[in-house]
Design a protein that fits this description.
The protein contains nine helices and six strands; from the N terminus they run βααββααβααββααα. The chain has two domains: 14-50 and 83-251 and 286-396, Outer membrane efflux proteins (OEP); 56-81 and 254-284, no CATH class. Strand 2 and strand 3 form a beta hairpin. It has helices spanning 18-28, 30-50, 84-153, 159-194, 217-227, 229-250, 287-331, 337-349, 355-390, and strands spanning 14-16, 56-66, 69-81, 202-204, 256-265, 270-278. The longest helix is centred in the first third of the chain and has 70 residues, at 84-153.
């Protein structure tokens, strides 16, 4: 007899550390990739603006005859526009500032990605721990329910008591399912941020991330206005556009080109020739380009003023939220969640407490476990968002 034993392939879970997740996000995040492309484009534009104009070579020849009279002449010359001598520098400086702004925006995106990874990584880790704790509680309560069925058959407890225990089992199942959905949500967020395949199962490590803060709201606002790379980038773009405005104003000077060459005629007359050409600016004085640059500078200055006020509001609101969550988190340190459930379960089995007291203990344990985990998750979320609002790692923050 042949026995066919089916093989079940279980896909291994990949364990990633916080540093690995952060490194992967920097490499694979689509926003950072887009910003890198913008930097490359700005570098290309800068290189193009730095190039000298191409010279133009001209050769003309005339072969004329009338009866027995022949006349020939040829001219070889080269010409080059002269405007680059005064137009080029302001344009190059403008493009250099534009490139600098794109690099600052990359750093702003990078800090934003770091905050998102920290938030998702820690939430996924904590919801995974909470899910495991609830499932362990569910297993213990299910065992207790089975024991209660035997006690019912023996007449030690009533049908009502058994049904109340079974109701609590189903309530915990529903709660555990909700926590599992939150765990999956943050797992998917982490995969999107880090570039991991959506079908790949990942697990995280327990991580101790700093959440302490010894700075006042005023200090944080001051440093945010100094350190926010998006604000720096906007100010740099204003400098860039002002330089480009100067470039457009210089282009009021008409196009001028200089030609120099050599000419030879049939009568053996020969020598150098020079020619200068310049445009007469009667109609087009580059007014449209100048006006567009002035409008752009004005809009950028308004954006900078708006962002300046927005940063103050962001830091203030995030700081207050952080302080509130920190105080709530610290207040929960004296609560020992595991002791509540273990004590209640043991006491109920020994007949030391009533069913009502036991169910109250279960609910206190479940509610307390969820509250404790979510307070810690919210604390890290607010700390990460405060770092993003200030624009610098608060671990490296200096007064």
């Amino acid at each position: 007899m042949l026995l066919f034993i089916p093989c079940v392939f279980i896909k291994a879970q990949q364990k990633i550390s916080f540093d690995e997740a952060l490194k992967s996000a920097y490499q694979n995040n689509i926003d950072l990739q887009k910003q890198s492309a913008r930097i490359q484009t700005a570098e290309s534009v800068l290189g193009e603006s730095s190039r000298l104009p191409n010279p133009v070579f001209t050769y003309t020849r005339e072969d004329l005859n009338s009866g027995s009279t022949n006349y020939k002449e040829w001219i070889a010359s080269g010409s080059i526009p002269l405007n680059f001598l005064w137009n080029r520098w302001s344009n190059v400086e403008s493009k250099e500032k534009s490139l600098e702004a794109q690099k600052l925006l990359y750093e702003a995106h990078k800090l934003n990605v770091s905050a998102q990874v920290r938030e998702s990584y820690f939430a996924f880790n904590k919801y995974s721990e909470l899910s495991g704790r609830l499932n362990n509680t569910l297993t213990r309560l299910t065992e207790l329910a089975e024991s209660a069925k035997h006690r019912l058959n023996e007449g030690d407890i009533s049908e009502y008591e058994l049904q109340r225990i079974l109701i609590e089992v189903n309530k915990i199942k529903a709660t555990a399912s909700e926590i599992e959905l939150l765990k999956t949500k943050f797992e998917n967020n982490l995969k999107l941020l880090t570039g991991y395949d959506s079908s790949e199962k990942i697990i995280t490590e327990s991580v101790e991330l700093n959440t302490d803060l010894d700075f006042s709201e005023e200090e944080l606002v001051t440093n945010a206005l100094k350190n926010r790379n998006d604000l720096k980038a906007l100010k740099t773009l204003i400098e860039s556009e002002n330089l480009f405005l100067s470039h457009n104003q210089m282009k009021i000077i008409p196009d001028i080109s200089l030609s120099a060459g050599y000419k030879k005629q049939t009568d053996d007359l020969k020598g150098t020739v020079f020619q200068i050409n310049f445009e007469v600016p009667l109609f087009n004085r580059n007014q449209n380009a100048i006006q567009q640059s002035e409008i752009e500078v004005n809009l950028l200055e308004k954006d900078a003023a708006f962002l300046n006020n927005k940063i103050k509001t962001e830091v203030s609101e995030t700081y207050k939220s952080y302080v509130l969550n920190k105080s709530l988190y610290n207040a929960r340190n004296d609560i020992k969640m595991d002791n509540i459930f273990n004590t209640a379960a043991y006491s109920y089995e020994q007949g030391e407490i009533s069913l009502v007291e036991f169910i109250d203990g279960i609910n206190a344990f479940i509610d307390g476990s969820i509250l404790s985990s979510e307070l810690e998750i919210n604390l890290h979320k607010n700390y990460s968002r405060l770092e993003k609002a200030v624009g610098i790692s608060l671990t490296n923050f200096e007064k």
